[in-house]
């Protein structure tokens, strides 16, 4: 019942991650608030079943690529004292995932 009050739903499980791409957390889409945003920490595949089904029910969503880049950039800054080139990190990450 509380799901209907959520503005954000985050999948932090490995359900849906390659190679088991058809897995996803159990969801009752009818309970979810119409404007709730979906965030799936998984970054491969680009669109998990969770995100695809959410989009089919009218929800916007995002995968975990930006979070992974943000974590890498933060670690780079801590270790080197310099800002990371996030665009280069994104290109390298996406190239490695294909």
Task: Describe the fold and architecture.
- The protein has 98 residues and is α/β, with parallel strands linked by helices.
- It contains 3 helices and 3 strands; from the N terminus they run E-E-H-E-H-H.
- It has a 3-stranded parallel β-sheet, covered by helices on one side.
- Strand 2 (37-40), helix 1 and strand 3 form a beta-alpha-beta unit.
- Helix 2 (65-80) crosses helix 3 (86-97).
Short description:
The protein is α/β, with parallel strands linked by helices. It is built from three helices and three strands; from the N terminus they run ββαβαα.
The rough form would be described as elongated
Strand content: 5-15%
Category by helix and strand content? alpha/beta
Tally of DSSP helical segments: 3
């Amino acid at each position: 019942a509380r799901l209907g009050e959520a503005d954000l739903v985050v999948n932090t499980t490995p359900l849906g991650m390659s190679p088991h791409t058809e897995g996803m957390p159990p969801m009752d889409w009818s309970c979810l608030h119409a404007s709730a945003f979906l965030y799936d920490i998984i970054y491969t595949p680009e669109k998990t079943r969770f995100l695809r089904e959410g989009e089919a029910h009218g929800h916007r969503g995002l995968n975990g690529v930006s979070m992974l880049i943000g974590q890498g950039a933060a670690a780079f800054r801590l270790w080197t004292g310099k800002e990371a080139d996030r665009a280069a990190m994104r290109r390298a990450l996406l190239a490695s995932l294909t």
